[in-house]
């Protein structure tokens, strides 16, 4: 009887399998899917653990730069993970975003000023079907909205005869020194953001990006000299050549020095700062010369005020950069926000904006005052 029942049960199962020939296959598929799902979950967990933020002690030696920042480091992350970490909270987040916002700001200023260069405006009008812009809509006149204080302090009509006012693009001063400064600023800010975002990838990329970052700082300092020296000494080409050539040679020497891998380490932080400060101090000589030459010009005090703000901003930022204050006073308290490098970034942007204001004054002055009067 038992054997008969077992046989009948087997027959029923066989008949059911004949009716549903994919019964076993579907069961295997479900089991495989479950295994794959569990494997993916396990991989995602291990991946999250693998790319977790680490402490200073867990860092590879090439990433140990500031011993007062104790936590929230990224180390040996793939490029994709490093890229998307721009939206994560770690000790480089504000370093990335401060200069990235500064880059976007200067990009906007550059585009806005380019829109008011007659040649560029005419080119754009071809595609926008708009009316041509008049020739007197130049960089300096249309940038007043950004630094309204400049236009309030300066009334060039009081110092410029009616016949010397700009009436055509041919009479306007060259714009390229102004855009050289804007380009140098954007390069510095973008290279800095890129360095802070991707330097966690590998030792090789870390060294490369650090050098590019230092080159960006040197380029920004060099290009900052172009608007004031070019426009102030436009009528004295010898001094114009001496000063622009001097800062360019000094900048090239600084860049060549900083490209050495050994000088990219934290040990040489004060030396790097000294090189940058030396480049900035080079500007004292042409500044004194410019004040003497233009002593009677009413714009003198305005430009001096802007440049004083720029110098103070850069020097203050450098002091934070070298001293590592405030994290030196309370290690671990400023890991995410408020540490010295973030403060340094903010002062760099403030200094660049102050110099932008001065460059507008220099450009507007040279647009309205020819060499005959300034001499």
Automatic annotation (TrEMBL):
Keywords: Membrane, Metal-binding, Transmembrane, Transmembrane helix, Zinc
TM segment ranges: 94-115, 178-200, 212-233, 239-259, 271-292, 304-322, 343-363
Compartment(s) where it occurs, according to its Swiss-Prot or TrEMBL record: Membrane
Comp. bias regions, Basic residues: 35-44
Gene Ontology biological-process entries: response to hormone; response to sucrose
GO CC field: membrane
Region named Disordered: 1-44
Membrane topology listed for this record: Multi-pass membrane protein
Domain of life: Eukaryota
Name of this protein: Heptahelical transmembrane protein 1-like
């Amino acid at each position: 009887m038992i054997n008969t029942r077992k046989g009948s049960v087997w027959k029923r199962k066989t008949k059911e399998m004949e009716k549903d020939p994919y019964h076993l296959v579907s069961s295997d598929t479900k089991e495989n899917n479950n295994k794959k799902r569990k494997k993916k979950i396990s991989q995602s967990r291990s991946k999250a653990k693998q790319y977790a933020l680490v402490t200073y002690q867990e860092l590879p030696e090439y990433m140990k730069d500031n011993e007062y920042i104790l936590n929230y480091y990224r180390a040996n992350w793939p490029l994709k993970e490093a890229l998307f970490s721009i939206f994560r909270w770690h000790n480089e987040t504000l370093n990335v975003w401060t200069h990235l916002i500064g880059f976007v700001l200067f990009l906007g200023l550059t585009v806005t000023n380019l829109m008011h260069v007659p040649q560029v405006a005419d080119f754009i009008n071809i595609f926008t079907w708009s009316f041509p812009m008049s020739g007197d809509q130049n960089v300096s006149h249309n940038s007043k909205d950004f630094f309204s204080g400049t236009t309030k302090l300066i009334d060039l009509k009081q110092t410029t005869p009616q016949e010397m006012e700009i009436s055509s693009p041919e009479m306007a001063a060259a714009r390229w020194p102004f855009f050289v400064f804007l380009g140098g600023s954007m390069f510095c800010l973008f290279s800095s953001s890129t360095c802070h975002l991707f330097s966690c990838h590998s030792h090789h990329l870390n060294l490369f990006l650090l050098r590019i970052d230092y080159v960006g700082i040197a380029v920004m300092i060099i290009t900052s000299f172009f608007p004031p020296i070019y426009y102030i000494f436009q009528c004295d080409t010898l001094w114009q050549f001496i000063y622009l050539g001097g800062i360019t040679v000094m900048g090239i020497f600084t860049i060549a020095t900083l490209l050495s891998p050994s000088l990219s380490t934290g040990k040489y932080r004060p030396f790097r700062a000294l090189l940058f400060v030396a480049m900035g101090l080079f500007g004292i000589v042409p500044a004194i010369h410019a004040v003497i030459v233009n002593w009677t010009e009413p714009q003198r005090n305005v430009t001096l005020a802007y440049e004083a703000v720029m110098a103070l901003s850069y020097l203050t930022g450098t002091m934070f950069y070298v001293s590592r204050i405030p994290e030196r006073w309370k290690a671990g308290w400023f890991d995410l926000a408020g540490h010295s490098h973030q403060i340094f970034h903010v002062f760099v942007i403030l200094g660049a904006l102050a110099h932008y204001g001065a460059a507008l004054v220099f450009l507007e002055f040279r647009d309205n005052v020819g060499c005959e009067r300034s001499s």
